[in-house]
Amino acid sequence: MWIFGWKGPSGFSARSTAEEVTEGIDATGLTAIVTGATSGIGVDTTRVLALRGAHVVMAVRNVEAGKKLKESILNEIPSAKIDVMQLELSSMASVRKFASEYIASCLPLNILINNAGIMAPPFSLSPDGIELQFATNHVGHFLLTHLLLDTMKKTARESNREGRIVLVSSDGHKFAYNEGIRLDKINNEAEYNCYRAYGQSKVANILHAKELARRLKEEGVNITANSLHPGEIATNLARNNGLRVKSIDVT
């Protein structure tokens, strides 16, 4: 069983590293955006993509932290191609600004990894008046993907290489409210449960990936969309409640 480090059908196990999984893959010529690139699995995702030759754009809230990580990776991998851009996913204005600047750069986009997120904070609203977990984990990534989709389609068409959209969800989707996504009660502080609200946002990630995959296939576009549960990893994702679990972070 994978939980004991035994290999599954893929040939990998819970103990497999990103370097092992990507051994032999040449990502030269690919451009990838990784949100939440300075913390948790975002760090290793950025490092290993760069190691395999991809041009990685770190979409991060804390630009200084991004620059420090870039410097650290360059010390290890002098040939790495990395850029740092500011992105605050809880702010739709920030998401629009990021997308506008990215499109203006005329960079291609082969891979979009929607990794950033927060887990179980006390109730609060985003700058746009949306419950913070739903705004950060789902709405921000939904808008980002929508705004960059034409660029991804153009890249897939011109490069003749399959594009990839990855939404980092969580097994925590099982802890959503009984109704699933409570669209009519997103901002209901009186009934807010930090863990169920987290699960709700993860359900939204999964549904987003499934519907996007269906539409891309229907259009005949050479792009795949998938959601995933990355496993239980000791990171600072749940720093709001003292737990250290699955890694996705907005820093």
From TrEMBL:
Per the UniProt record, the lineage of the source organism begins with: Eukaryota, Viridiplantae, Streptophyta, Embryophyta, Tracheophyta
Q: Which InterPro entries match?
A: NAD(P)-bd_dom_sf (IPR036291), SDR_fam (IPR002347), TIC32 (IPR055280)
Whose protein is this, by species?
Linum tenue
Name of the protein described by the UniProt record? Short-chain dehydrogenase TIC 32, chloroplastic-like
In which domain of life is the source organism classified? Eukaryota
Pfam families named in the record:
adh_short (PF00106)
